[in-house]
């Protein structure tokens, strides 16, 4: 019997060795398949991004909070003209700069992200933050909070797109409160040429917040029409200040949003800054808000261009 023990042991060892080899082969195969599948998955994802459009991308992620991936992907999808406006909004290019002064899509996207990170950061933490990992929704929340554009509940619960619109509405309130009652009445007449807004004198006597609440029930402040109205507001107020703008050019909804996405819109966003002048080395809510306003209007412009309706975006 003793002579058989070594033999039995050898058989057991061989069986164990065979099992171990099988497990090794199964695991190795799984790892190999995983390594092969990952590039394919990544390529498919990138291909999907490249075939997407800015409007569809905005619509697909309309009710979400936008992180770094959303922002980076959207900047890749938009047009050169859009990227030009965003660089201007961040002060990276002169307001008169043209598309010919861009550096190429990848470099322009990187420049925009770097400029946004610098504008929204204190100088010290800026150096160890990643340009490709900007929490865009966090920046929108910060701007909305600083500007008093939304309640704490709205800041914590609204999607990025909805919170951006709150900032746009805050822009209207701020501009309205700076006007005299007679100027407000003139503005209402510019907005409403069909006398749909009743008792304009009474509305003109209201504060910006109360006026917006009242006017939100009208067609001029609902859905996409809100952006056409905002372009009228900015052009009219510019006229009060003696600044001549080619207002006749901005008569359609899409061109009105183009106005807001461009220099006029993001420059007007500067009036939202409640903290005074930017302090060297500190995060600049003024410039960051200008970027947020421009990006939001670019989203809206592409949604309109691609045929989305009010009910698709605003449920109206």
Question: Please, could you describe this protein's structure?
Answer:
With 316 residues, the chain is mainly alpha-helical. It has two domains: 1-51; 54-313, no CATH class. 66% of the residues lie in helices and 0% in strands. The longest helix has 48 residues, at 4-51. It is globular, with a radius of gyration of 27 Å.
Summarize the structure.
By secondary structure, this protein is mainly α. It has helices at 4-51, 54-60, 68-77, 80-89, 105-119, 123-126, 136-147, 152-157, 160-177, 181-191, 200-204, 208-215, 225-240, 253-261, 263-268, 285-305, 310-313.
Q: Helicity range of the residues?
A: 55-70%
When the domains are counted, the total is 2
DSSP, total strands: 0
The helix count comes to 17
Q: Low-confidence stretches at least 5 residues in length (pLDDT < 50)?
A: 7-12, 35-49, 246-253, 272-280
Q: Calculate the mean pLDDT score and round it.
A: 80
Q: Mind telling me the C-alpha Rg?
A: 27 Å
Order of SSEs: HHHHHHHHHHHHHHHHH
Coarse structural class: mainly alpha
Morphology call: globular
**Most strands sheet:** none
Which band does the percent of strand residues land in?
Answer: under 5%
